Amino acid sequence: MNSPTYTIAAEYRGRLTFYHIDAYRLAGEEDFREIGGYEMLGAEGSLSVIEWSENIPKAVAFDASIIEIGLGEEHSRTFALHGAWLEGIDL
User: Fold this and answer.
1) Which CATH number do you get for residue 72?
2) What is the pLDDT of residue 88?
3) Is residue 76 domain-resident?
4) Are 60 and 27 in contact (CB under 8 A)?
5) With 60 as the cut, is the pLDDT of residue 4 above it?
C-alpha cells in the first residue's frame, strides 16, 4: 500500500472501508475538515489510519491507537505503541 502523499487521502473498499490519510501537508484542523477527514473518521464500518497525525492533534480521538515509527540504527526502524487498548496486554 503506497502512501497517499500526493492525494492526501486514499480509500480502499473491502470487508471494511479503510481510509489512509497523510496529514503531512495539512496546515491544521481546518484543512482536515475541508478534505472530509471527520466524515472518514466517523464512517460506519471503517478503519482510518493517519500519518503525521501530530499536524492535526484535535482530530485524534482520546482513545486512538498511536503507532510511532522511528529510525533506528543501520537502516532499522523502531516502533512504539500507545493507547488505552494496550492495558493488560503483555507484549
Assistant:
1) 3.40.50.300
2) 64
3) yes
4) no
5) no
Domain assignment present for residue 38? The answer is: yes
Residue 13: other Cβ atoms inside 10 A = 8
Range of the domain at 75: 9-86
Q: Which of 60, 46, 50, 41 is nearest to 4 (CA)?
A: 50
Element containing residue 69 per DSSP (H, E): strand 66-71
For residues 79 and 68, is the Cβ–Cβ distance under 8 A? yes
Q: Check pLDDT > 80 for residue 85.
A: no
Residue 1 resides in a domain:
no
Of all residues in the chain, what percent carry a pLDDT higher than 90? 53
Count of structural domains within the chain: 1
Q: Evaluate whether residue 3 is within a structural domain.
A: no
Tens digit of each residue's pLDDT (9 = 90 or more) over 31-70: 999 999 999 998 999 989 999 999 999 888 777 888 888 9
Residue at grid coordinates 507484549: 91
| β-bridge mates for residue 79, sequence order | 69
